[in-house]
Amino acid sequence: MEQEHMSQNWNSEPGTLGASAAADLHHHERPGVPEEIAPPRPLTNSHWTTPEDQLSDSPPLVGANMRLTPVYSSAIPPRGLSGLIRRAAYKIPEHRARRWMLLLLADRIDAVEHEPAAMAKVVGTLGLVIFGVYALRAARRR
Amino acid sequence: MKAVTYRGPKRMRVVEKDRPVVEHPNDIIIRITRTAICGSDLHLYHGLVPDTRVGATFGHEFAGVVEEVGPSVESLNPGDRVVVPFNVACGTCFFCSRGLTSSCENSNCSCAIGAGAFGYSHTTGGYEGGQAEFARVPFADVGPLKIPDDMEEEDVLFLSDILPTGYQAAEMGSIKEGETVCVFGAGPVGLMTMQCAWLMGAGRVIAVDRLDYRLAFAKQWAGVETINYEDECGGSDVVTYVKDITDGRGPDVCIDAVGCEAKGSAFQSFLGRSMLQAGMTTALTWAIQSVRRAGHVVIIGVYGPPWNLLPIGDAMNKGLTLRGAQCNVKRYMPHLLKHIRSGRLDPRAIITHRFPLEEAEEAYRTFDNKTDDCIKCVLVPNAA
Fold it and tell me: H-helix or E-strand containing B234?
């Protein structure tokens, strides 16, 4: 690991940025003004009207009211119990809070079912709880 | 290839993964030479962004060398060095053709909240990120910017996100000559915002944070006034203090460069940690409450769905202009490259730590815990 010292190009007094001050003072010199480019035009180097479609044997989940886009990621397809929950969540429109709650739940389950160390911790904890309950019951019977 | 992968909240691991392949005719594969950890990666790291899957590779700030090009790629060749915007954007859809690449409708089929983004959960399309030795970059003719021969990757690495994001934030504030701008958050993107506020003619720039070392850096590097809200407000709250030092009226522009993990309010922290809202809106609340009437409030801190608690009545009654956006990175790259070349901006100066990719876990811990006066971490893959 290397720690560097901060820039030599700094200023010591507030409000004294030297040459850089106000270089973009005029709004028309700012790239994002106006917010929307008018008339609309394709960005430089794009040479299609509609992009070609990506072909894949494993298309991703598509959200409710969405369509498969021309490009997508096929990485980390849903799997296991968390995958089932994700599939259910994707059927719910995104303006419904339960979609996001289900996805957060799926994330937590995913972190247990696909991470051996976390799974061992959960199994261990559950085992201890079950053992404790049985031990308590046995003690009461006596 | 080696890649940093998410294993659950606050757990990252470097593992061997399959090298990415061209999946679309306009894809390229790049060999990563520099990749950074962004403050917004910490929201993923903490498990706050829905649909963050175990095994995912984060990283949306990266630069590298083109290794392979798809059959329809016209503007790039193997061997070209490129820096890649975090947005995946087609360049021709309704939004891209208006310059709004962060809203591209051809790159995210998960949901309609925005375009695809690299390494930022399946909520933004599930694209694998750049914290790896290689990455697949779709729409290669649209996004990546060739790095000039006389510049190094680190000179332009932050054109991928934080510099354009900071610039767009200042721009959304419609800063006029002599105005006072208050930036909440002195992390990397906040620092960029402060520099860009000066570029747009601000008369005063004030940074608010709770970490002295970051405020000291902001004061020295960006030449701003600083407020540590934990111990410099003279016994009053930060909103009152900010108003007091701005003629009682408040700043003309307030910018939230913190997002959903803001500290400073026990009530907000309770709501956020108990998942009753999507994180903490403390910084944004302060921004709305501090800004002068009819002022501008800009949101560049990241918030997740579904909802947040905000003083929206204050915003309405004060007649505020409230703006926020993911950055349309590509639109700003050429302009900001000129500023870097001219020396007006020196974004690489904020890099305080470099780690080998294999030590990414340690890098995340250092950045997350703000130890060792960490401001910005860059990962260096072995393949570089």
Answer: none
